[in-house]
Structures
1.
Amino acid sequence: MPRRHDNLFDAIANFGALHQAARRAILGKRRKPGAAAFFANLEGELLNLERQLQDGTYRPGRYVAFEVNDPKKRIVSAAPFRDRVVHHALCAVVEPIFEAGFIDHTFANRKGKGTHRAIEVYEHYRYRHAHVLRCDIYRYFPAIDHELLKAAFRRRISCVRTLALLDLNVDRSNAQEPVNLYFDGDDLFAPFKRRRGLPIGNLTSQFFANLYLDGFDHFVTEVLRAPFVRYVDDFALFHDDPAVLADWRERIDSYLAGRRLRLHPGKTFIAPTAATANFLGFELHGDGGRSLPDDNVRRFRNRLRGLRDQWRAGTVGMGDVEPRVRAWIAHAENANTWRLRHAIFGGGRFDPRQSEAWTAPCRRVLRGGSWNNNPQNLRSANRNRNTTDNRNNNIGFRVGSTLSARTGAITVSPGEH
């Protein structure tokens, strides 16, 4: 039986802890009206929040829900800023207790982990095994069962007031999309009697999502003893024998049923590890290369144009634009995207003061070359790094981008150039 922790509440509901939580909650949100209003009367807001937490009168406010369709349809919920402060204060105390028991190979929303570390571990295993079982949980966040989640809290926490605050956070979740699944022992009304679903967008929801599958992580690594990597509800197991993976799939399906979850039938499959795999926003190729899927690039271009238009209209400042652009560049640098970044930004850097920063053309030749002093240059796969307007007496061909990178069109220059 794991150790249970008591006397935690005073470390959550005190002015100092709430002040630090507010500082963390406002990062990247200073221009939001709710955050700005809270900080305009910071001391008074924090004292009021402390009093309500201590006397038990604190109640979370209403969520603002909106639908996102890119890359897939989902409902994102935004809590009032004062509730976000409570979420940060709560997680700062409770999360380390559970973090100590998490396995090393679950990577979402954990310090020192993240998408790129998960991809590195995925590649480590794919080079050592012939097949992979890729799995995805069907509508994971909307399907999380409140009763089972609250039971998970009580495995490590015995502080009554902290448990009441955790339960309140779960109980006041707004309604999510319905997931009407039936499991052994259910009657006709079981899916409608059990409360399910966590709001995507909450800091607490990210933590709860890891906690809800903690037992599953230990089952895979300690009972199945499988090479394993998980990022939220997307996970992979590796083995040389596909029959073993098929058996693991059945056992995983049975285990998840106990958590009232199902594997996604269209996103769960066994494949050779040598095949190109789409994992966490990258295309991972059998030769070790990485690239960004076309949809990923298209979404970023659309966001970049939207930011450009807002910046030109004066509705956003550089403090809002630059972090988003640089975050995408940092993400893209983990793949073979040197030419892509040069195509978008020209020189691979983002300088919003330059007009070309938003629509910079790619001035590098993409493919092809010419016979000069090396016949290798004539191969269509050769990347000759001359500029598209370079002229000399070599014979061959080049394929280069046009001056409008937004169109994605290319120009072929055959013959003498």
2.
Amino acid sequence: MKHLENPYVECAPAALPVFDTAAAEARIEALLPDLENCVSTHELPSSTGHPTGDPTIYTGICGLSLAFYRLGVYKGAEGGQYFQRSLHVAAMCRMTHPSSGEVSFYCGTPGALAIEAAAAHALGLGDLRQSALDSILTFSAAAQAHKDDELLFGRAGYIYALLWARKHTPGASHDGFDDALRAVAEAAVASGEALAAARRYAGSGWPLMWECFNSPYLGAAHGHLGILAMLYRCWPLLSARSHMLVRDTTAKLLAERFPKTGNLPIVLGDRGDGHVKWCHGAPGLPALCAAAIAAHGDTADGALEAAARAAANVTWQQGVLLKGFGLCHGIAGNGYALLSMYRLTHDEAWLQKARAFAAMCDDPQITKEIEKQPDPQRRMVGKPDSPFSLMEGSAGLLCYILDVAVPEASSFPGWEV
């Protein structure tokens, strides 16, 4: 069993848990001491208690930098101390040389630089902000030449770093960003077109095809969904031919959904319909569909919004995951699909469901079920390998609680801009 029954699935919206801002802020305060301790010791403990040594945003200490930045934004005029913490952590997480293959937001130095630029901007440190922005551009050539296109490690992840850094540094100089975005995005399209024409996919009907780990993954972290969303987010920079290929590939992707649920298989051709999580499945679809609608509008029959709704529905029904409360494959990450749907439709029912997911992240019975769940992929029963991290642990849960409190400005960290 991968998920628990959603205890609210049959409830009318009015019967769902009410969001209590004071209780949410108390939950945030309860999460903070462990994160503060990780920053002060410069160590992120694993589930076994030993430091992970991981500097990334994904499951490493730089993810705490993003969580503190988000907390600073939420606190407004009182956010300075959190921006300082964010800047401190991001600055120590510059990992690699611009010629390296570690180019993505989640798993490369461009992510740390993007947060450094944003935190410096919030603190009024213009020179430091510009230095970080300029440094992100030095990874452009490595991103263009990268062997992968996907979000977690590859070109799509570099595109996200540029887009996020630009959004969070208004008024700064972003000279060269459009050129880098265009070049890397078109390289991803060219890569997808070449693989679609290769012998093993020729005649399959896919205009663009991508692989990761030698497999045609479809989800957000490693697959088509994640790559396509980033291409839509730099839509004005793409050629007319790329527009056609991206739109047709999106239609092909949606045709691969399981007809009864609207969920996606993990890998093309997989018949298993049991994975409903952001990294591999339906929860990434509302954000993709929203990005496509923002780029070129919906189809005449409203197919994109309908696909987003079906994905949000299966996430609501099957998204209370026994993997835990994290973003990548947990309850909070699935809750973001409901927030995406709320921003797309402005339907309060989706916001109430997202709030119910936040309540379930503080439910003692659900916590108990998670803590006893065996998982051969983990070192410890009932615990993520990186329990304080952004994508597996409490730093990501903190971000989700903040975003449920301010839903109009919400965005899945590292995925939505």
3.
Amino acid sequence: MIKCAECGYENMDGLDYCDGCGAKLAAAAAGGSSSAGSPAAPAAETNSETPPAPVAESAEAKPEGEGEGEAASTSEAPTGDLKKEPAEAPAADAAAAAPSAAPSMFKAKLSVVRGGRKGQEFPLEDGNNLIGRWDPETGSFPEVDLDADDPEAKISRKHALIRIDGGKITIEDIGSLNGTYVNRQPRLSPGSPAEIKSGDEVIIGKTFLKLVVDPIS
């Protein structure tokens, strides 16, 4: 019996062609031998591919080491940047401290002349000076506290703001109910500072105050 290598059909001896599939038995045998050899080739290929696997793992291990080196180098980068920033800080501090020396050429104060404790004085500081009344809810005291000079509560708790900056004195209404007036001129528009000088009269509610500026000798 001759077994066909293509379909497995068992043929009688002496036949050249398979009765099952028609394939030539001699060619099928030759094909079978060639196909039998072909699996060996993939086996050889798998064997040849198997050794590179550990090499690939070792190659992957190297980038991990290199990545750690890169991470270390990047971690050092911010420290370099941080070292540069403090170097600029003294310059900024010096620039901020420079204007503070200018307003020390004079001393300013508000003096009550009418509608309150006549002669009561309120020294003004460099920067912002809030004019108003003590707020019992927040416990805040304005620099110019007119609570004792305003029995009718005509002055808002946050009424106006006097600012001394660079030798210049301005007053600004900050949304008061009864307004702020300078030298009996029209009511100041809230949020619009007006420059004032020594001798000017400031009316807050029913309290009249006079700005006094004394030069420092």
4.
Amino acid sequence: MSLKKELPSGPIPLSNGPIPSYHFGMSDVVIRLSEMRAYYGKFLAVDRLDLELRRGELFGLLGPNGAGKSTTVKVLIGQHRPASGTAVVCGIDVARDWQKVKPLFGYVPDRENHFDEFTGRKNLEIFAGLYNVPKSRADECLKLVELDEAANVPVRGYSMGMRKKLLLARALLHKPQLLYLDEPTANLDIHSSAIVHRILQKHVKEGGTVLMTTHNMPEVEAICDRVAIMCKGKLVALDTPLALRQRHSERKVDVILRSNERLVLDMDNDEHRRRLADHLAAGTVESMHTREFDFHSTFLKLTGTIFD
């Protein structure tokens, strides 16, 4: 039987203590993309992307299909070479010194590539051998993602959510400094999503860095320190979820009068504020409510595309 999956080459040392730091100087920047361009054939997938990720940061990368998210991640994991510009990870140029970069990250792809005929434990033990880490680490990672009770079940019997969690367990085997995750909570129930969030938050708290792509807007607000939104290969927004909320919230009030007339009043408009005050003073307001921030609407506003 041949192992046809994409496997790392060469032994990767395991740290028994906290996540180690690699090539950090005075700066806490661990990933730096500078003027990076990447093509698929003649299609420009990433257009002069400038982006920096810091140590201890949980970073969300959003965008519609074809925005360049996956291509960006593929450059970082060495599956796609940039046409121009640079991708530097922990002070190492990805294109020039790939073998030095490879031990530093764990990767959770959007499509699983397990050995279905083997158990969950056996799948991880195969990779533990490739990473040159003790087999006992497989059991630690299975327990971490709450798959320890299914450790001896062939993966063909796993649900989609279990298979996704097994990918995360595999990525954590060698305690990497960096985690790259493509839709890490897709097909997960609420409880399993919470497990993944807890693992990622613990990883960054210990000094690691997480880059994740996601279509889950509530997830972005709940766990991401910063968010980048891409569209047509370009970076169109970069900030914290809170700053995006503050910048793009609609300061409008929906009002229903006792006469059943409905009003939408803009609180940035002096005349609208006076109208609301007059109605309140006259007691003609039946009900009113402010509009909540909607990350989905903000995404549409920034990209001008339908989010799918």
